Amino acid sequence: MSRQMVRPGGRSARVQESVHTAVRELASEVGRDALTVPMVAQRAGVTPSTIYRRWGDLQELLSDVAVERLRPDTAPRVHGDMSADLTAWAEQFLDEMASPAGRAYIRDALLGDPDGGNAGQCSAYAADQIGLVLTRATEHGDETPDVETVMDRVVAPIMYRILFRPEGLDAAYARSLVADVLARTGP
Amino acid sequence: MSRQMVRPGGRSARVQESVHTAVRELASEVGRDALTVPMVAQRAGVTPSTIYRRWGDLQELLSDVAVERLRPDTAPRVHGDMSADLTAWAEQFLDEMASPAGRAYIRDALLGDPDGGNAGQCSAYAADQIGLVLTRATEHGDETPDVETVMDRVVAPIMYRILFRPEGLDAAYARSLVADVLARTGP
């Protein structure tokens, strides 16, 4: 991912920010499918070759932008215990990812991603959020499943169904996944 | 999916078969990324407009071809009991889907798929195979999990990790998923 090569505050970071901003603005103005590299370059005030050099093509640029949009901006809220916190997180995760915007970002993140780095980053965001919830619970003395188990039992089914099997995706489904993975652990 | 509109043996089916064959041949000859609609049309002996009319664009055509390649050509093999059959199926499923060819087909199936029909078909193939294994077990009097539970607990984690989190995907992982979902059921 180009983002990982970027030094915060450096010229490279400023170029990336202006290009990402141009993509977000133009996508809302003319629609994502009407975007072209020259259009984005003009809005961002860079040359098209700058974009091709860093991102390779439009799809990789859209993939980078999508990963940025999928990054959680807050830690999971505290609702009381591990079950309540994880349930609330899973309901919100399903709600956001299954939304039209969420589905579009997931597709973009997967598609322009030859090295798989962007998809891995999306997965790391979810694992980090779950890790925060489980660490809190451990600090309260709860027995918790490990992060990878929650990824397999809660995140994977939600993401798999969004991509491959979208029927019946609702908050009750998210709650049942959390209840099931906590059934064998918990306080 | 265009395939669903095709009457077996009809002209439409013959065109589809020749176009799919042309894609598979040319992909192995010049590589998937070098394919163009005119190239495929010439090899298949149809006009490019025939392809555009039915598939819309190359990406949707590649998506249809990918789904055909992902269709299982045999029923899951019988190894003795539900645990052995489901374990063998899951190991083979992971092996095939995680291979470079499998990953490319999954990508293509997801990519050129505006209506989600092709991804749904891939998921239906897996559900059908699992259904066969579980039905056999039920006929032997075993208590079995339902198909959707196996989709959530075995297929979803495998596919999620292939797409988003590819580290540590091996036969042992597939076996552990099956052992875990059967731990609460079985004879």
From TrEMBL, chains A, B:
Gene3D superfamilies per the UniProt record, alphabetical: Homeodomain-like, Tetracycline Repressor, domain 2
Keywords: DNA-binding, Transcription, Transcription regulation
InterPro entries xrefs: Homeodomain-like_sf, HTH-type_TetR-like_transc_reg, HTH_TetR, Tet_transcr_reg_TetR-rel_C_sf, TetR_C
Taxonomic superkingdom: Bacteria
Annotated HTH tetR-type domain residues: 13-73
Keyword flag DNA-binding: yes
Location of the DNA-binding region in this protein: 36-55
Protein's name according to its UniProt entry: TetR/AcrR family transcriptional regulator
Taxonomic lineage: Bacteria, Bacillati, Actinomycetota, Actinomycetes, Kitasatosporales
